[in-house]
Amino acid sequence: MLAHQFSEFRRQSAAGIARRGAPPRAFTLLETMMALVIIAVGVLAFVDAQTAFTHSNNWSSHAATGMLLANEIREFTRRLPRHDPVTGLSLATLTGGTVTAQGWGRESGETTVLDIDDLDDLDNTTFGSGGNFPGPIDAFGDVVQEIGLDGQVITDREGHAQALEGWRQRVIVTKVDPYNFSTARAPAYEQAASSQLPAIRVNQFPLRITVIVEYQGPLDTQPEEVTRTTWVVPP
User: Fold this and answer.
1) What is d(CA 229, CA 67) in angstroms, rounded to the nearest whole number?
2) Assigned domain for 36 exists
């Protein structure tokens, strides 16, 4: 009996030693593939989050720049009368009896920003790339310059300051009904007197000013609207 117990003890001890001395079990191919999949999903999620953050940050920066440029035009218009201070806005009858507004838009010889002396001069005017005037402009009519990361103005090879690249300001001036600013009137429109409403001459209507700020990047095929600002100038 004692010999049998001693033999069994030696057998179990030998089995335990054999197990402890065995090499550790390696990863299987399936386990390795699963680990790679988990790592890849994590990396893709990080890259996607980083891309979304960069896009959001760029758009926030563009939105702030667009609002600033729109407000610059608004400040630029504060000093301007609604119509030309010399010729004003009047009606003229063309050959054939067609009545038109005389004095709406830029007059002959108004070729620079400094020549703009009334609000209707700004109708269908664009400051910036592909526009009527260089731009974009600030409240003083000066071209907004491109600033580098070092805080210095970027210049071309000839030393001239570069305008803010890719941006432009489009301005639309519309004569509107004094009782409903959403109703547009033609530049030559006059309101005849009636039993309910008084007569309103051609130059006595409110003007609605709309500024559309657009940006076109180096890889964009066309400008994209960033912001739009509208206000009404009373008569």
Assistant:
1) 8
2) no
Residue numbers of the domain that contains 229 = 50-233
Residue 109 has pLDDT above 60, yes or no: yes
Q: Write the pLDDT tens digit of every residue in 196-217.
A: 889 999 999 999 999 999 999 8
Q: Mark residue 141 as left, alpha or beta (left: phi above 0; alpha: psi -120 to 50; beta: remaining).
A: left
Q: Which of 26-35, 54-63, 81-90, 162-171 has the lowest average pLDDT?
A: 54-63
Q: Is residue 41 part of a domain?
A: no
If we measure between CA atoms, which residue out of 119, 114, 51, 64 comes closest to residue 88? 119
CA proximity to 121, closest of 207, 21, 196, 54: 207
Number of domains within the chain = 1
Indicate the residue type of 137: I
Q: How confident is the model at residue 106 (pLDDT cuts 50, 70, 90)?
A: very high
Q: Quick count: other Cβ atoms within 10 Å of Cβ 110?
A: 15
Radius of gyration for the chain, computed over Cα atoms and rounded to the nearest angstrom: 37
Collapse the DSSP code of 80 into the 3-class scheme (helix H, G, I; strand E, B; otherwise coil) and give the result: coil
Q: Residue 67 phi/psi, 5° resolution?
A: -65, -40
For residue 202, tell me if it sits in a domain: yes
How far CA 117 is from CA of 72, 80, 142, 235, in Å, comes to 16, 6, 15, 17
Closest to 198 in 3D by CA, of 188, 190, 187: 190
CA distance 105 to 101: 10
- Quote the tokens at residue 26: 């390696």
Residue 80 within any structural domain of the chain: yes
